[in-house]
């Protein structure tokens, strides 16, 4: 699959509903999960897309585009329920082909209309009843054990809405990691949170058993941050850089990552430069196109479009080339979004 085709799929999406799909929640959503030419791909579902998934092929305007496609089967663990009667599917979901993902706290102090990130829909899945507000360590550990035993899950991602505490939610993450590590010691885990005010919390997460960490900034441009992330932008970029540096010290080079969203208005050349600097500092820059999705202010209020394909491809190619030059690959992370690669085109070019 060419990078151009992968970018087009990421932006235009597909018609059709693969067996594993997601609507609402934290991170990129409203997607279907496929394996395309051997690589995990989380593709937006779009009723107006020229691409159609027909069960074993992707067609464009009725023509086979010549890429190998497999759907990811509905996992068996979805049929289970915890000891206290909560559906496993409400505790954690399958992402890609072998990643178990959960948002341990589905609420966020920044979700007020004047504070929330305009691309985020973290509380929408809670509003429609497809998840629960707080997952206990015991619930998450029970689901993780079942997902490994029944479906061969090979890694796990735990993220959280931001809490009012100085740890910004990291301490509950640590409790959840510790429980999963006890129940499934062989399962690699990535955690994701905002920079904690006390950086010692990063060591606490590592000692709890986390293998990798995502500290997601989305943009390195302060003007873009204020416009798109009014609450989150009150955390200065200097705090992000301090947290990234400490995380690299604690977790190691290329076990720390951050999302960079293309399409928020950041200058492409400045994003490329910033991404290269992050990579040189040991932080993997996960390049992902902004995905318009229902339930976000970006779509419901701003009517913001997806970015231009040429811009996404340019940034992906140039950042990917630098990652190859310095021998940094998402696939070398022990766990997490970059290790999965499904939401980005970087894996297509070996980045």
Question: What is this structure's SSE topology?
Answer:
Elements: H1 3-12, E1 21-22, E2 31-36, E3 39-44, E4 51-53, E5 58-60, E6 63-64, E7 69-71, H2 88-91, E8 93-95, E9 99-103, H3 124-127, H4 137-151, E10 155-159, H5 170-183, E11 189-192, H6 200-208, E12 212-214, H7 222-228, H8 237-251, E13 256-262, H9 268-280, E14 283-289, H10 297-300, H11 309-325, H12 337-340
Parallel strand pairs: 9-10, 10-11, 11-12, 12-13, 13-14
Antiparallel strand pairs: 1-2, 2-3, 2-7, 4-5, 5-6, 8-9
Helix pairs in contact: 1-11, 4-5, 5-6, 9-11
Structure description:
With 351 residues, this protein is α/β, with parallel strands linked by helices. It is built from 12 helices and 14 strands. It has helices at residues 3-12, 88-91, 124-127, 137-151, 170-183, 200-208, 222-228, 237-251, 268-280, 297-300, 309-325, 337-340, and strands spanning 21-22, 31-36, 39-44, 51-53, 58-60, 63-64, 69-71, 93-95, 99-103, 155-159, 189-192, 212-214, 256-262, 283-289. Strand 5 and strand 6 form a beta hairpin. The longest helix is centred in the last third of the chain and has 17 residues, at 309-325. The model has no long low-confidence stretch (mean pLDDT 93).
